[in-house]
Amino acid sequence: MRSRSESTMWYRDWKFWIPVAAALIAVFVCIMLLVGGKAVPARSLVPDSAFAFVTVNLHEKGQGVRPALDSMEAWMLQKEHGRLKRFAIKRAFSSFLPEQIIAVAAPGEDQTKPEILLIVRMGCVIRLAKLFHGQVARVFFSGKDYEEEKIQGDRVTYIETRDGRMGVRAYAIIGNTLIAGSSYTVLEDALTSDSVKSTGETQPPNLIPMLLRSSDRHTLFIFADNRVRNLSRLEVYIEERYAFALFPTMDAVEIIYGQMSLIPGEALGSAAFLCNDVGRLREVYSDVKYIYGVMRRVLRPSNIDMEGEIRILESRVQFDFRVPGYIEAMLNYLEEEGD
């Protein structure tokens, strides 16, 4: 029988403190995940100088991307019988997938190669990255030494490199949003941007903040503004770097916008190319037709059959398309790759 002094010393036993420490860590993690950070609208993170963006929405319910994700999850669960791996697959599809991804292009310092910005809105699970900041930085920068700065109270992690290649060189986590850029400068522009301010009398009004508001209605939405020839300079850069003319008539195009929505059984979409010279509509039509042919040839080996129609309407070239049976084609492709 233990003495009274011994029975009151239970709190000094290391076996008591192990579960206590585990419980405290669990509570801390839950607080980090559940306590709301500052909510930042994605459109407020788009630099004022941006000339193009693409949005992908993965948070739709019912119609939209959900059936495709559910089919992918079911296919992966069917292939995997281990309990731990099945649990990881379910958690990945229910909690770890991003809700929205926005890719933005802005002019670079040399006005040829653009700066790229990636805005990824996730659930509260993204805040786990703050708990493992060092590990996340090593993954982003492949083990290179990194530096940190504060921009308007937000921590920005970045590397100094001038190797001329595209890639993530700076990132920050703001609330439930990860924002990563091809340079520290473009990330700084994003965090200090004020998209409601005037862009100046010499610049056309920025349409991107307005269009971002309506992009949530589509699975995929794309917009590119060529009124000050940013797209034309990008096309020239691609042609010089890869000796390949992707869209030779880009100078005749003012604005490109398009969208794609997923409905049960098929994907439906369209793209419009607004022109500044009606005399070159037939040339733009030929370029769009060429790109359509390339897309069909790329998708055909995956058993994805794309059907499209290209028309000239007043001052624009209109491209409408559909992809029937895309889910079945996707799963058949995965089966063939897995064999």
Write up what this structure looks like.
- Helices cover 37% and strands 24% of the residues.
- With 339 residues, it is α+β, with helices and mostly antiparallel strands.
- A twelve-stranded antiparallel sheet has the order 4-5-6-7-3-2-1-8-9-10-12-11, sandwiched between helices.
Give the arrangement of secondary structure elements.
Blueprint: H1 4-7, H2 14-34, E1 52-57, H3 66-79, H4 83-96, E2 100-106, E3 115-121, H5 128-131, H6 133-140, E4 147-151, E5 154-158, E6 170-174, E7 177-181, H7 184-191, H8 208-214, E8 220-225, H9 230-242, E9 253-263, E10 266-275, H10 281-299, E11 307-313, E12 316-324, H11 326-338
Antiparallel strand pairs: 1-2, 1-8, 2-3, 3-7, 4-5, 5-6, 6-7, 8-9, 9-10, 10-12, 11-12
Helix pairs in contact: 3-4
Number of DSSP-assigned strands: 12
Fraction of residues in H or I helices: 25-40%
Shape: globular
- Helix and strand composition category: alpha+beta
Q: How big is the Rg?
A: 25 Å
Strand content: 15-25%
> Could you give the order of strands across the largest sheet?
4-5-6-7-3-2-1-8-9-10-12-11
Mean pLDDT: 78
Count, helices: 11
Strand count, sense and barrel status of the largest sheet are: 12 strands, antiparallel
- How far apart are the first and last residues' alpha carbons, in Å? 66 Å
Order of helices and strands: HHEHHEEHHEEEEHHEHEEHEEH
**Which parts are unreliable, with pLDDT below 50 for 5 consecutive residues or more?**
195-202
